[in-house]
């Protein structure tokens, strides 16, 4: 009998019984006030007169009027760079203990995003919320005695000017509570290995020693790790070595594009729980099984604003125009893409995180990630967002009985001077020719997106597709950044980067 598991599950159920439902709009007003009060005497707070702001009768509205939008480059050049010169109390009291390194999917060099002790606490609290929400998923008691494989970046953080630097997954893993360390795999020694291939090799070698009940990490890298374990032990599927694997916590990107290839590695279904942990904070987590949408962490150190994702509000580089209107949680609507803006206990203020979301349930503050502001393809009016592209990939998988685990696209002129969408799809072992897939992709996008259909009748000449092995995408990431961790493939490329990508593929 799973005695310990029953105790843990009982504590979770008891906590759920005595926890009142969060009123998300009220929680957000409280968070904003706490943020402004805490940062009132910082350089940023004095510059934007937080003291006067706090006297406003409509704090949310006055805040949006008084403080401009910032993307990373803007806030780093104006404020965050001061931390590296030894200054304190810049955008948050004191100095941050960590900087999260993130090149995202578009940057050429690593961003350095402050991570304060208050943010570490907020991330930990959000993780606890996720654990308690497991009560909603009707998991057996023995699940709570199994080990959890968290595959992120290295926990061997680099010391730099009185702070530590690393990717957010490595920072988070290095701060796990002591009571959790007995459940945490691959353990501290393996987690500190910097080289991703070496770390995964060690995981494969030790896999038989662990009783894994849950996995956590970005889908593409989790898949490669599972495949390595399967190949190393000559298995048919991962459940032959981890028979009690029941839960996969996806993070960083939408899981849907990876669902088919992920399931192919399993021997039986698992519960998939989506989470949204970014370098800037723990944004949201799925809290109930009836939906794959995630609930914003509205009461935990992050204040959210939402800008309607419309071309007239977006600059060519994906940044926001300052006149773009920002809505509060009380003002949003369903079936509308929004640019996500956050203010946090790490001293990010009205910060453009780069993601677009839509609400699936406003009362519950539940959202889905729909794409990236820089990955919105609007060349010649086609208005393709990442979620539309993802849906087209699922349509192709169903039509041709194939698996497409990665893709990238560029809109550019062809040799005839006309505009085309050039797609590279990552898929193994199919015999369908590129032209057939291109025609099917074109028809799928026409049916799903009226703006694309109009563009195809005018300035967008056509679609060109090249199917390549998925490992080219992983090798590209390794050459340009590194494997594993928070690294994600860019879905949309500009002309210059796409030329480098095509040269890379042709070299393989």
From TrEMBL:
**Example of a GO cellular component annotation carried by this entry:** cytoplasm
Molecular function GO terms recorded: acid-amino acid ligase activity
**Where does the record place the GH3 middle domain?**
298-362
The residue stretches assigned to a coiled coil in this entry are: none
Q: Which residues form the GH3 C-terminal domain?
A: 390-496
| UniProt-listed InterPro entries | GH3, GH3_C, GH3_M
Q: What is this protein called?
A: GH3 auxin-responsive promoter
Q: Which organism is it from?
A: Winogradskyella sediminis
């Amino acid at each position: 009998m799973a005695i310990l598991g029953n105790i843990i599950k009982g504590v979770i159920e008891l906590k759920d019984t005595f926890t009142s439902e969060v009123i998300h709009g009220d929680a957000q007003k409280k968070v904003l006030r706490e943020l402004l009060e805490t940062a009132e005497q910082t350089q940023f707070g004095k510059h934007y007169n937080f003291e006067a702001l706090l006297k406003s009768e409509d704090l949310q509205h006055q805040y949006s009027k008084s403080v401009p939008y910032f993307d990373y480059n803007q806030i780093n050049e104006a404020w965050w760079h001061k931390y590296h010169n030894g200054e304190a109390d810049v955008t948050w009291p004191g100095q941050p203990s960590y900087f999260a390194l993130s090149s995202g999917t578009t940057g050429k060099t690593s961003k350095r995003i402050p991570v304060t002790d208050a943010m570490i606490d907020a991330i930990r609290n959000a993780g606890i919320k996720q654990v308690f929400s497991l009560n909603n998923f009707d998991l057996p008691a023995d699940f709570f005695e199994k080990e959890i494989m968290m595959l992120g970046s290295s926990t061997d953080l680099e010391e730099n000017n009185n702070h530590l630097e690393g990717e957010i997954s490595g920072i988070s893993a290095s701060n796990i509570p002591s009571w959790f360390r007995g459940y945490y795999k691959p353990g501290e020694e393996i987690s500190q290995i910097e080289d991703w291939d070496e770390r995964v090799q060690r995981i494969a070698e030790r896999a038989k020693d662990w009783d894994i009940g849950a996995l956590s990490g970005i889908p593409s890298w989790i898949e490669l790790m599972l495949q390595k374990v399967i190949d190393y032990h000559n298995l048919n599927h991962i459940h032959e070595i981890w028979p009690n694997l029941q839960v996969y916590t996806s993070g960083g990107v939408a899981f849907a594009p990876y669902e088919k290839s992920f399931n192919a590695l399993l021997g039986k279904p698992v519960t998939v729980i989506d989470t949204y942990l970014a370098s800037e904070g723990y944004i949201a987590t799925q809290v109930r099984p009836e939906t794959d949408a995630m609930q914003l962490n509205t009461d935990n150190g992050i204040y959210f604003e939402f800008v309607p994702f419309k071309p007239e509000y977006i600059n060519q580089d994906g940044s926001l125009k300052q006149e773009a209107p920002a809505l509060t949680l009380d003002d949003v609507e369903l079936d509308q893409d929004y640019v996500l803006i956050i203010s946090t206990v790490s001293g990010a203020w009205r910060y453009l995180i780069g993601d677009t979301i839509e609400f699936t349930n406003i009362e519950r503050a539940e959202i889905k990630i729909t794409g990236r502001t820089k990955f919105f393809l609007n060349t010649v009016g086609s208005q393709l967002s990442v979620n539309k592209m993802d849906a087209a990939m699922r349509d192709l998988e169903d039509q041709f009985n194939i698996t497409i685990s990665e893709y990238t696209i560029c809109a550019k002129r062809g040799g005839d001077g006309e505009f085309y969408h050039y797609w590279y799809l990552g898929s193994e072992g199919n015999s369908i020719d590129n032209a057939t897939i291109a025609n099917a992709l074109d028809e799928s996008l026409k049916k799903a997106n009226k703006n694309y259909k109009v563009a195809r009748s005018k300035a967008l000449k056509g679609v060109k597709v090249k199917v390549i092995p998925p490992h080219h995408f992983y090798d590209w990431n390794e050459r340009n950044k590194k494997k594993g961790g928070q690294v994600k493939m860019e879905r949309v490329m500009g002309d210059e980067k796409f030329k480098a990508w095509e040269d890379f593929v042709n070299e393989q």
